[in-house]
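ok so i was messing around last nite and threw this chain in just to see what happens. nothing serious, just curious
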Amino acid sequence: PTVGQVFVRDTIIKGFAPRITASRAKSLVVEERVNRDVKRLTFGRFGALTVEQERKEVLKLIGKTAIGLNPIAEREHVRFAQVPP
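result:
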C-alpha cells in the first residue's frame, strides 16, 4: 500500500494474517476476541518461520484466549518485569 497497512487473511486460521505496511515492513498478526474486545497481537516478522510453524504458534495463542487468558497482558507483564527498579 502507499499509505496505511494491508492484511492478507489466512484461509485456514481465522484471525491470522501477514500485515504489510506502506514502508514495506512485513509482520505477522493474530486478531482474537479477549474479554469481549477484539485485540491484535503482532508476534513476529514475516518469513522468520515457515507458514506451518507460524500457524502452530498462532494456534497456541488462540488456545490461550479460548481458556480465558490474555496473551497481550502476559507479554506486557514479562516486559515490565524486565525493567530495572
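not much to say yet. The helical segments are 51-66, 71-81.
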